[in-house]
Write a structure and sequence with these properties.
The complex is a heterodimer of chains A (82) and B (201). Chain A has a domain of 52 residues. Chain A is 66% helix and 0% strand. Chain A is built from four helices and no strands. Chain A is elongated and about 40 Å long. Chain B is an all-alpha fold and 201 residues long. The longest helix of chain B has 22 residues. Chain B folds into two domains: 90 residues, RNA polymerase sigma factor, region 2, helix turn helix motif (Rna Polymerase Sigma Factor, Chain: A, Orthogonal Bundle), CATH 1.10.1740; 99 residues, Arc Repressor Mutant, subunit A, CATH 1.10.10. Helices cover 69% and strands 0% of the residues of chain B. In chain B, helix 2 packs across helix 4, helix 7 packs across helix 9 and helix 8 packs across helix 9. Classes of the chains: A mainly alpha (82), B mainly alpha (201). At the A-B interface, helix 1, helix 2 and helix 4 of A face helix 2, helix 4, helix 6, helix 7 and helix 9 of B. The complex binds zinc ion. Zinc ion binds next to helix 2 and helix 4 of chain A.
């Protein structure tokens, strides 16, 4: 089990973004819809949602899911009232 | 038909025909959203999408009481459907891959990935920081933490790593989060300030 230099670099990026208190993936999922809508509406992100932003910075899977969600939001409007 | 959040929840929670109508409409919306979200990915066809929507509907109905109305209902439901669908894609791609093969894989050759033209001074600082982190990985972490972090860095899905470790995703997140915290505080104890850890980006 050996970390390559590239992996050390990627790990350092994660370590630098690490906070003492973080949401886990399940907690992130509960808030990510609200986060995505606020982000797209250009609203400033409240303190509760900053934890979502931080989780997305350290979790590739939730980040991938968030980006997929953003892709859908452009066409959600015709299915649901604002 | 447009529904507000309360109507979605009320109809999906009801027992009558309106529940069936709401379910049918939600199924159509989720199918369309998933198809858009996953467009261009391998193995995503109508049959995959229908299965994913079905699984997602069960999960959505199961946690209907957790919807707090802080986003549109459809956005919330779509976020769950995306987790289900991407989870399934990751699982099918990785299901036959052992943790050992990921950790032992020698294809992960060291590459020079940092800024291609750093100043000599910055380069020396980067090298020292990388060296220190490398040392801490060996000395400050448990074997399990090392394995989980490395498997994650190599793209293995968290659910799969957890399965191989006989754990679950929440416990795995705690394991790797604790490992990152330990590394961060060890680097800070070694004299690196928080902003210096970001120096290379
Ligand atoms: Zn996550």
């Amino acid at each position: 089990m050996a970390f390559s230099k590239r992996e050390i670099e990627n790990l350092l990026r994660l370590v630098s973004r690490t906070k003492d208190a973080e949401l886990n993936c399940e907690e992130c999922l509960a808030l990510v819809a609200e986060f995505a809508e606020q982000h797209l509406a250009g609203k400033s992100i409240g303190s509760g949602l900053q934890a979502v932003e931080q989780h997305l910075a350290v979790c590739d899977e939730c980040r991938e899911e968030y980006e997929a969600l953003l892709v859908t939001l452009g066409k959600i409007d015709d299915d649901s009232p604002a | 038909m447009n529904r507000d959040n309360d109507t979605w929840v009320a109809q999906l929670s009801s027992a009558g025909a309106e529940r069936e109508v709401a379910l049918t409409e939600l199924r159509v919306v989720l199918f369309r959203n998933l198809r858009k979200a996953l467009a261009g990915r391998p193995h995503v066809d109508n049959s995959f999408l229908e299965d994913a929507v079905q699984d997602a509907l069960l999960r959505i109905l199961d946690r209907l009481d957790q919807f707090q109305g802080r986003s549109r209902f459809v956005t919330w439901a779509t976020s769950i459907a995306i987790r289900v669908a991407l989870g399934e894609l990751r699982r099918s791609r990785w299901k036959d891959v052992s943790l050992d093969s990921v950790l032992d894989d020698t294809d992960y050759a060291p590459t020079r990935a940092v800024d291609s033209s750093p100043s000599p001074e910055l380069l020396v600082q980067q090298e020292a920081l990388f060296h220190k982190l490398h040392e801490l990985i060996e000395t400050a972490l448990t074997e399990k933490q090392r394995a989980a972090l490395l498997a994650e860095l190599r793209g293995m899905p968290q659910d799969e790593i957890a399965r191989h470790l006989g754990s679950n995703r929440n416990a795995l997140y705690k394991l790797t989060h604790d490992a990152r915290k330990k590394l961060k505080s060890a680097l800070q104890n070694a004299g690196y300030r928080e902003d210096e850890l970001e120096l290379t980006y």
